[in-house]
Amino acid sequence: MSSTFNEFYNEKTGLTIGVNGILFSEQTPYQKVEILETDSWGRMMTIDGMVMLSEKDEFVYHEMLTHVGMFSHPQPERVLIIGGGDGGTAREVMRHPSVKKVDMVEIDEVVVQASKEFLPQVGDWGNPKLNVVIGDGIEFVKDISVPYDVIIIDGSDPVGPAAGLFEGEFMQACYDGLSEDGILTAQTESPWVESYHPSMKQVYTALDDIYAVSKMYLAYIPLYPAGMWSFSFASKGGTDPLAEVVLQRVENGVMRFEDELKYYNPEVHRGCFALPNFVKDIIEP
Ligand code: SAM
C-alpha cells in the first residue's frame, strides 16, 4: 500500500482508505477530478478530495437515487439527469423498459471522459437512449420545452458549481419542466455533516413549498460521511411514494430486473422513508 486517502467531514472525523495508486488526476475549470485504485473498494472517483463513488458501493447510491422516483411514476418515458457524469444513475434509469430518452446534463466533461476510461462498467454508455449534454444543469432547466416525467438531481456537494442545485429557484425551474404527474428525486447530503444542514433544509423547504408531495428518504452508503445519506422525493401531481398503487408497481416492476439490483427492493422502498427524529429535526420548521 503506497499511500492513504483521507476525507475529513468535520474537524476531527473522517474516512481513511489505503490507496495503491492514482490512475487519473486533473484540475478542471470546475473542480479536481481523481480516480484512485484501492484494494478494499475497487476504483474510486473523488472530486475536490471528496468520495463520489467506489466500484464496490456505488450501487447503493445509484439504485436509491433512481428507482424510488422511477417506480413512483406510472410510465416514465422522458428522464432528465442533472450531474451524474459517472453514468451510474443513467444506467439504473435505463433498466426501466418504459424509458425512451434520457438527457444527462453534466457540467464537467472531464468527469464523463474519466468515467468512460477508468470506470467503464459504471455507465451504460452505448445505450442509444442516452443523450449526454455538457453544460450547466441550472441553466438547462430554465429552458425546458418538452416536459420530463422524471428529473433526477445527481449533483455534487453544495459548493462550487453545485451550490445552485440546492436552491429554491432551481427546484421551481425543475417543477416547471416536469409533466403534470412528474417526479423529482435529488441527493441531499449526509444528516451527520452539520455544515450541510442549511442546504438540506433549504432543499426540503423549497420542495415542500413548491410540490404537491415532498418527502425525505435515507440509505446506508459506507463511503459517504458517517454512512448515512439523504435523498429527497417530490411529486408535482401529488403521488405519494407509499401509496398502494406505487407499492404494487414496485412489487411487479422489480421482478423484471431484480437480479440486477443489489440494494433496492420493495421492502427497502417502504422502509427508506422512515426518518429518525434527529433527521426530522434538521428539515422540519
Ligand atoms: N454521488 C456523488 C456524491 O457524492 O454526491 C455525486 C455524483 S458526481 C457524478 C456529481 C456531478 O455533478 C459531478 O460530476 C459534477 O461535475 C456535476 N455537477 C455539479 N454541478 C453541476 C451543475 N451545476 N450542472 C451539471 N452538473 C453539475
From TrEMBL:
<comment type="similarity">
    <text>Belongs to the spermidine/spermine synthase family.</text>
</comment>
<feature type="binding site">
    <location>
        <position position="62"/>
    </location>
    <ligand>
        <name>spermidine</name>
    </ligand>
</feature>
<dbReference type="Pfam" id="PF01564">
    <property type="entry name" value="Spermine_synth"/>
</dbReference>
<feature type="binding site">
    <location>
        <position position="31"/>
    </location>
    <ligand>
        <name>S-methyl-5'-thioadenosine</name>
    </ligand>
</feature>
<dbReference type="InterPro" id="IPR037163">
    <property type="entry name" value="Spermidine_synt_N_sf"/>
</dbReference>
<comment type="subunit">
    <text>Homodimer or homotetramer.</text>
</comment>
<dbReference type="InterPro" id="IPR035246">
    <property type="entry name" value="Spermidine_synt_N"/>
</dbReference>
<dbReference type="GO" id="GO:0008295">
    <property type="term" value="P:spermidine biosynthetic process"/>
</dbReference>
<feature type="binding site">
    <location>
        <begin position="136"/>
        <end position="137"/>
    </location>
    <ligand>
        <name>S-methyl-5'-thioadenosine</name>
    </ligand>
</feature>
<keyword id="KW-0745">Spermidine biosynthesis</keyword>
<protein>
    <recommendedName>
        <fullName>Polyamine aminopropyltransferase</fullName>
        <ecNumber>2.5.1.16</ecNumber>
    </recommendedName>
</protein>
<feature type="active site" description="Proton acceptor">
    <location>
        <position position="154"/>
    </location>
</feature>
<dbReference type="InterPro" id="IPR030373">
    <property type="entry name" value="PABS_CS"/>
</dbReference>
<dbReference type="Pfam" id="PF17284">
    <property type="entry name" value="Spermine_synt_N"/>
</dbReference>
<feature type="binding site">
    <location>
        <position position="106"/>
    </location>
    <ligand>
        <name>S-methyl-5'-thioadenosine</name>
    </ligand>
</feature>
<feature type="binding site">
    <location>
        <position position="161"/>
    </location>
    <ligand>
        <name>S-methyl-5'-thioadenosine</name>
    </ligand>
</feature>
<dbReference type="InterPro" id="IPR029063">
    <property type="entry name" value="SAM-dependent_MTases_sf"/>
</dbReference>
<comment type="pathway">
    <text>Amine and polyamine biosynthesis; spermidine biosynthesis; spermidine from putrescine: step 1/1.</text>
</comment>
<feature type="domain" description="PABS">
    <location>
        <begin position="7"/>
        <end position="236"/>
    </location>
</feature>
<keyword id="KW-0620">Polyamine biosynthesis</keyword>
<dbReference type="GO" id="GO:0004766">
    <property type="term" value="F:spermidine synthase activity"/>
</dbReference>
<comment type="function">
    <text>Catalyzes the irreversible transfer of a propylamine group from the amino donor S-adenosylmethioninamine (decarboxy-AdoMet) to putrescine (1,4-diaminobutane) to yield spermidine.</text>
</comment>
<dbReference type="InterPro" id="IPR001045">
    <property type="entry name" value="Spermi_synthase"/>
</dbReference>
<feature type="binding site">
    <location>
        <position position="86"/>
    </location>
    <ligand>
        <name>spermidine</name>
    </ligand>
</feature>
<keyword id="KW-0808">Transferase</keyword>
<dbReference type="GO" id="GO:0005829">
    <property type="term" value="C:cytosol"/>
</dbReference>
<dbReference type="InterPro" id="IPR030374">
    <property type="entry name" value="PABS"/>
</dbReference>
